[in-house]
Amino acid sequence: MTDSQDVSSVARQLADLTRTVQEMETQLNTFRLGAETQQDRADAQQERIDLAARELAEVSERLQAAARALRQSI
Fold first, then answer.
1. What's the first-to-final CA gap in the chain, in angstroms?
2. Could you give the CA distance from residue 68 to residue 61 in angstroms, rounded to a whole number?
3. Helices (DSSP H) in the chain: which residue ranges?
């Protein structure tokens, strides 16, 4: 193999490697965006759960107050 053939072979390998790295970068960015989207959904769901828990606690307090008032009226 001549020097120019060696250089051509290395250049092809480097081009292939560059394409592979670019494809991997694209895939990693896709995975990262997907993970961020899932985290955003999980955060939104947790916020809804927290709000529902607060509302439930408020309803529970009102029911307990109503029960106390009912017991006192009897």
1. 105
2. 11
3. 3-73
CA distance 48 to 55: 10
Q: Which two tokens stand for residue 30?
A: 């896709």
Residue 3 pLDDT greater than 80, yes or no: no
Coil, strand or helix at 1 = coil
Task: Report pLDDT digits (tens) over 36-62.
Answer: 999 999 999 999 999 999 999 999 999
Triad 60, 64, 68: Cα angle to 5°: 170
CA angle 7, 9, 15 (to 5 degrees): 100
